[in-house]
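Example record

The entry below shows one chain as it appears in the dataset: sequence first, then structure tokens.
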Amino acid sequence: MNVDWIRDLCLSFPHTTEQIQWGDDLVFKVAGKIHAITVLRPAKTWLCFKASPEKFSELTERPGIIPAPYLARAKWVALETKDALSPDELRILLRDSYDMVVGKLPRKRREALAHGKSRTRRKSATKPAPRKSLRTPRQKGKKPSRSRKGS
């Protein structure tokens, strides 16, 4: 397993995008939400992803897997070594991470993804029509009447 293998796997998930972020981290996102992070340069950890609370507890007891720095409270794990998990197990866990992130998206956003609709909107070349005022125009020379309470 290497960065190219992780990249190919994560990009095979529907609507996943990649972005280099925080210097040398390759971040995989769906609808702007991160589901996996891998490093492009040697670091203490080489891959981070979200896990269910049960899996988080189970995985962090295994050698080579730690709670992800800065993300552990959200149940993310970090792999210290590339052989901490088998490719088959990692494939399943990365898909679970993707599914959990998609599952937390607002319903309308999930439906838009399911129907292949893009969230980005095109800006109109024409300006929108001005809003009509709800206030009636004041007639020149006349002041608005004020009602007095208690009269």
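Notes for this example: Helices lie at 3-11, 53-60, 87-103, 107-114. Residues 119-127 have pLDDT under 50 and may be disordered.
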